[in-house]
Hints:
Oligomer: single chain
Number of domains: 7
Strand content: 35-45%
Distance between the termini: 140 Å
Radius of gyration: 64 Å
Shape: rod-shaped
CATH topology of the largest domain: Immunoglobulin-like
Number of strands: 52
CATH superfamily of the largest domain: Cadherins
CATH architecture of the largest domain: Sandwich
Strand order of the largest sheet: 1-7-6-3
Number of helices: 9
Amino acid sequence: MASVLMNGASFIFLLCVSDLVSGQIRYSIPEELEHGAFVGNIAEDLRLNVWELSARKFRLVSGEKKQYMEVNLENGILFVNERIDRELLCRQSSTCSLSLQVALDNPLAMHRVVVEILDVNDNSPNFSQDEFSLHISESNAPGARFHLESAHDRDVGTNTISTYQISPNEHFGIKVQIRKDGSKSAELLLENTLDREEQSTFDLVLTAIDGGIPHRSGTARIIIAVLDVNDNAPIFNHEIYRATVAENAAKGTLVTKINAADLDEGTNADLTYSFTNHVSHMIRELFKLEAETGEIRVEGRLDFEESSVYELDVQAVDNALPALAGHAKVIVALIDVNDNFPVVEVTSVSSSVSEDCVPGTVIAVISVKDLDSGKNGQVQCQILGVVPFKLQKSSRNEYQLVTRDILDREKAPLYNISISAWDGGTPPLSKSKTIVVSVSDINDNAPRFTQSSYNVFLMENNKPGASIFAVTALDIDLDQNGDLVYSIPENQLQVVPGSAYFTINSKNGNIYALRSFDYEQLKHFQIKVQAQDAGSPPLSSIATVNVIILDQNDNAPVIVSPLTWNSSASVEIVPQSVYPGYLLIKVIAADADSGQNARLSYQLLEATDPSLFTVGLLSGDIRATRRFRHQDIIIERLILCVKDNGQPSLSSTATISFSIISNVTEKSSERSDELFHSEDFNYLNRYLIIILGSTSLLFLVTIIFLVVLKCKQDGNIAEGDSCTVFCCRRRNSNAPSYRASAPNQPFNYSGPAQTEEYRYTVCLSPESSKSDFLFLKPCHPTLPFNEVSARDTKALA
């Protein structure tokens, strides 16, 4: 076998002739070639450079279950991938070929490749039996012919049986007959008269020789027994019988009836009909011959597509000894019926197509065929349903599936394209095929935030690094075209960029505060958030995040008037000016918070004499509830609480001491006595303090007198009202002291040496008998007290 294959491979049959006609290439190779055998240079025949095979995704598509052919993408050589047995592939067909499809992308191109498989003489003729017996009457005249068992050869063409030979003898020769299908059968020819008494048996060797090079042969023994007497063989009334039957005929259907006659009488004329040995076992399974009646009936399932004509060799054998036989032929033609569905084959498919492809892009090449013949085999094809695809006919049985409209993956990412094919039979038969085409994504959709603007309410004093909000953007594209990255872009117009205050998780859009915010410093902040996909080129969108800082009750109230030192203040009161409801002092407090957190209320916590004072809940006015009596203590102390309305509430307290004096002189004297009896001072210090206090008091009274006089002269003071501007000084260790005078009289001040100075404007109204602080401002610490008083006096003038 190896030598045969080598001879076949080296034989001139390896023409490998390639024709590029209408996109078709044809090669011819012998069968039984080993793996790797050269078939042809397909790259050269397609006029392609070798590097284009990989770049354009060269694909070889075969309709066979086995991949008999393969292409080397490095050199473009088409070679045998698996040994080909022509007899197994094509049986007894006179022609045998492999049909391949070559597909190339960018651009898509299809080429048909036909590889003709040439027969190699690798099969020897063989007989069904090694030995056959013949009974020949001695009465047969020279020229009589006797049918012999035919040999079978699986090869075709010149490699099949060419002739028959018989071993040399004096009486018999071989007559070779050529049948209509091209096969050859042998008949034993009687060349000389037989004489049973001279030789009763003949042992001959029948040899079948094929036409291959070298020749192959097969043999069988022919045992011939020479009989006597019965000299009339049956004769058919027709040499050839012709019949037609539909391929879907049921079992038992009568095909035809044969008839033969024998001139002999008695048992020599009783005939039995049968098929000759030349009728194959396959045909015997399809047809049945009744031995007694000669009726031929359908026995098996007929198929027009497998064979349209059957040739049956029949014989009539008499019952004489020896038996004689007559022979005839029955030719049965099948009538085609529409019993095969159309077949839809997708020979090349682009399983994925970009959504930006132009209309007319080829997606697949579709082949349709029908095994029926005539009108029954004429197939039409169309797409079912409404899809953006259409069929374009490229040849008789081939279509191209192309795009008809613009595709949009976001609307339809996948198409199940149903293709229906039907034949022209009555009734027509149809078949459907579904092709799945996915639409690949391009970056044609920008990310979209769920809102164009977000409002975030953030409580002040937040913890740095905590998440305050999360923005979400959606991108309906796929894979990297839909992978989003969040960021805070830098705005050149902002003095401080948003990234200095906030940072954002690039993956999930969580926004984190980098610092703790103070409502009193910053109440509102606006940042821009960008979502950008990973497409090429990338697309992005921006949303605005308005960060609104919410106030938290984190500032306690601060008492700004009267001026306190270590949360205490002193006020001097002249008892003659006090009556019920008299405003002793107005406490003013401030809170840096806002809203309810800055809504203040005043409450008297403790007092030396609680019955003497009342405090306005919201105004902070401290008023007398009655007139002062001489038995009241000289110094009244009360503790005032200022509380805001926050949750939780914050508060501040202050201690206010009221010194009750009868007049200015008395007060000064009491003050001097107090200093004089103090154990902390010696006599020298006591005299210096008295002198300094007296001098300061006189100077202050003089300034106030001049101011009041000047106001009256100019008429700038409203009728019944008077305003006084004065400064006070405060020591580091003691709270300042105040002295209130009667209406239309200035306030007096006395106290030890001071290091800080403050200026006050006080308006007194005799009609209301009320006094209010109108203005509070610290004096400049570097200015002397006399300069402050003179300046204030000039301002009032």
